[in-house]
Write a structure and sequence with these properties.
alpha+beta, Phosphorylase Kinase, domain 1, D-amino Acid Aminotransferase, Chain A, domain 1, 2 domains, 5-stranded antiparallel beta sheet, 6 helices, binds cytidine-5'-monophosphate
């Protein structure tokens, strides 16, 4: 890895220069953080599992026509992806009240929301990723109106598709976070899905027992995070028998 130039190091991933122009390599770490990195730890083998789960989800999404940055998995912890300009928004889709919305609005965790909610948070670690409205996004030009139309319609299609995909393996898709990027072609750009989809950035509850199979196990000190991530991978059929 030393032969490659590191472009960026995030909390759970490192981005290296790719082999061809317009590509980068996304490396999945075992590091886990929560509460804007106030809590830190590692989940053994998480990077390997998230690489596989994200590959699986992005591949399935591309089959229903969602454009994504994913090109191919390179090895246990790395995937080749298209280089994009990340839109500075975390797009959170919620089906069931949990986490910050339950706390912020005093709703009991586990309550079904009357309809699916999309929320936008500004990607700004120093500000703790504040919740922002579409008016803020337009006012400060973080994304154009056309980009927001693409983002919201993709978020809804992704939610519909993935809710079914997880339900088929007895998992409730409670909520998740997406990130989008601009792919440039000369002066023009289009929005594609970027980052990752893994138990690090979604809530997955066993439909029968309500057991949490996601990063809340780490955030809330519930233990068993390695087993939970492995269980998700196993149910999705993405781990080989010997992994
Ligand atoms: O914390 P909150 O309830 O707002 O999180 C909503 C969803 O977004 C959860 O699935 C969480 O894992 C994800 N999320 C994330 N990265 C953040 C904040 C939230 O992946 N910085």
């Amino acid at each position: 890895m030393s032969r490659r130039r590191q472009l960026y190091e995030g909390k759970a991933k490192i981005i290296y220069e790719g082999p061809e122009p317009g590509t980068v390599i996304q490396y999945f770490k075992d590091d886990a953080t929560a509460f804007n990195a106030e809590k830190r730890g590692t989940i053994n083998g998480k990077g390997v599992i998230n690489n596989r789960i994200s590959e699986h989800i992005f591949t399935r999404l591309s089959h229903i026509g969602i454009p994504t940055h994913f090109i191919r998995r390179l090895n246990m912890r790395e995937q080749l992806v298209r280089q994009v300009e990340i839109i500075p928004l975390e797009v959170v889709v919620r089906n069931v009240a949990a986490g910050s919305i339950a706390k912020r609005l005093g709703i009991e965790e586990g309550e079904m929301l009357p309809h699916t909610l999309i929320e936008y948070y500004l990607k700004a670690d120093d500000l703790g990723d504040p919740l922002v409205s579409e008016e803020h996004i337009a006012c400060f030009n973080w994304a154009s109106h056309e980009e927001m139309m693409d983002i919201s319609s993709m978020a809804i299609r992704i939610n519909d598709f993935l809710s079914g995909l997880f339900a088929a393996v007895d998992i409730r898709l409670v909520d998740f976070k997406l990130e989008f990027g601009r792919l440039y072609d000369g002066d023009f750009s289009r929005v594609i899905l970027a980052d990752e989809f893994s138990p690090d950035n979604c809530r997955l509850w066993d439909m029968t027992t309500n057991e949490k199979l996601d990063k809340d196990r780490f955030r809330r000190d519930l233990g068993g995070e390695e087993e939970a991530y492995q269980e998700v991978a196993r149910r999705l059929g993405v781990l080989q028998k010997d992994e």
